[in-house]
Design a protein that fits this description.
Number of helices: 16
Helix content: 25-40%
Structural class: alpha+beta
Shape: globular
Number of strands: 20
Distance between the termini: 54 Å
CATH class of the largest domain: Alpha Beta
Radius of gyration: 23 Å
Oligomer: single chain
């Protein structure tokens, strides 16, 4: 085998291919190299879902498989090494004809122009495989990353409901066996001219590589870095991939906190956080889309530090901290102190986010988050707020509020917090807190919202949290029109 060769399973068949460009996307490989044109390119930025495929991996226990949808347009080809890729061409029913998902789309007239259909089929297939009896909300969530420009959603929902009328011939053990066959035991290293791609298995090897190449690009899910290549046409000389580092993929619950590895997916991290804090369920359901949450990592979202990143306000009010590592040395930094300015954080050259520590829930503490955006699903926030409230009778023992979209970084509303802490949890206190928000933030106007409406939105969302805490509002955005 060539030094630059990767092995993976494609629709049941083992593929060995030489990597000529470490940042070539899976979509480019499918369409241009293999002429498998069922998977479409719509946006090349992980937004429209036309390129959706399913990746199958050995689960963390090693005794089963897990399936997840991803956007092939921003996933780099070397990240498939040791995994299985399913595309729309690989689906079939028991008789070799259409798969039940495809047949349901035909029967329910779920395809109009047809361009988006393969992506919808693959998202439905992942739902079919992983959830035998989804609710309407779960169907909507599964399809949140797929856009239909013909506005054909009603028949697609109908197909999702009827696709379970027939079964297929899925054999999990067969997929597990072939995955074990393509597993790589050692580290992966590709070198093409001046361009290098490293995928180590251990955190010590990862840390040593990054200390040696501090200017390297750290690649996790590629949900941001993929756009550097597809939209900005950057040429990345050295890439170090986190997706095979066993320690960075660990997630466990300690006595006092959740310990979330830097390469744990947003989907997996969100499930653990929401189990502790159910009030954050809506936030993570509306975080991008399932393919983005499946590929992207919580560590990457935090390290990227976008002022409109949805995870950071909630993590801040929870008192999360980061374990940063460089070489063999680690240090812990509170998330409150991590961001210094726009795209400027506390990371030193060669240092990376090894773990995220999220305190476990305590009785009597109410935690919630609100996201305000132009579009309900699969959209970037104009404003994202999060709150943590602990009362002593009618008096506020401790209140924390953090906001995204209001400044150069996600940060606390310090004057607002000061106006609330120690006061009665009353409308008069909220009035003072809303006035203080105008002193905390001087937002900008951009394509998502004007500065004035951002401030009004944050004030109104705080009032909503107050009403929710008093039991005066029991509706959520999920109950409107559903």
């Amino acid at each position: 085998m060539s030094m630059n060769t990767i092995r993976f399973v494609l629709n049941g068949n083992i593929v060995e291919t030489e990597v000529a460009d470490p940042t070539r996307t899976v979509l480019q490989f499918l369409r241009d190299d293999l002429r498998m044109t069922g998977t479409k390119e719509g946006c090349a930025e992980g937004d429209c879902g036309a390129c959706t495929v399913v990746v199958v991996e050995v689960d963390r226990r090693g005794g089963g498989v897990e399936l997840k949808t991803i956007n092939s347009c921003i996933q780099f080809l070397p990240t498939l090494d040791g995994k299985e890729l399913l595309t729309v061409e690989g689906l079939h029913g028991k008789d070799g004809g259409l798969h039940p998902v495809q047949q349901a789309m035909v029967d329910q007239h779920g395809s109009q122009c047809g361009f988006c259909t393969p992506g919808f089929v693959m998202s439905l297939y992942a739902l079919y495989r992983t959830n035998p009896d989804p609710s309407r909300q779960e169907i909507d969530d599964a399809l949140a990353g797929n856009l239909c420009r013909c506005t054909g959603y009603r028949p697609i929902i109908a197909a999702a409901r009827s696709m379970y009328d027939a079964s297929d011939d899925w054999d999990a053990q067969q997929h597990l066996d072939v995955l074990h066959e393509v597993q790589r035991q050692g580290d992966l290293e590709l070198e093409v001219g001046r361009r290098r791609f490293f995928a180590p298995r251990g955190v010590a090897a990862f840390a040593a590589l990054y200390a040696k190449h501090p200017d390297a690009t750290i690649l996790a899910g590629g949900t941001d870095i993929g756009l550097w290549v597809t939209k900005q046409h950057r040429e990345l000389e050295t890439v170090i991939y986190t997706g095979r580092v066993e320690e960075l993929l660990e997630l466990h619950t300690a006595d006092s906190h959740l310990e979330i590895g830097g390469a744990v997916s947003i989907a997996a991290a969100a499930a653990a956080i929401v189990e502790q804090y159910p009030g954050l369920d809506e936030l993570f359901r509306r975080f991008a889309s399932p393919p983005i949450r499946n590929a992207g990592t919580l560590g990457g979202n935090v390290a990227n530090g976008s002022p409109i990143g949805d995870s950071m306000p909630a993590l801040m009010v929870l008192g999360a901290s980061l374990v940063l590592r460089r070489g063999e040395k680690e240090r812990e930094v509170g998330l409150d102190d991590f961001y210094h300015d726009y795209q400027v954080n506390d990371l030193q050259p060669g240092e990376f986010v090894a773990r995220i520590r999220v305190p476990r829930a305590r009785a009597g503490v109410r935690v919630a988050s609100h996201k305000w955006s132009k579009r309900f699903d699969q959209d970037i926030s104009a404003v994202c707020t999060a709150y943590s409230l602990e009362l002593d009778g009618d008096t506020v023992a401790r209140f924390r509020m953090a906001c995204g979209g209001m400044a150069a970084t996600v940060r606390h509303a310090e004057r607002c917090e000061a106006a609330v802490n120690g006061a009665h949890w009353s409308e008069a206190t909220i009035d003072r807190a809303c006035a203080a928000l105008a002193e905390d933030f001087t937002p900008i106007s951009d394509m998502r919202a004007s500065a004035d409406i951002r401030l009004v939105a944050v004030q109104n969302l705080l009032r909503r949290f107050w009403l929710e805490s008093r039991g005066e509002v029991d509706e959520t955005v999920y109950t409107y029109g559903r």
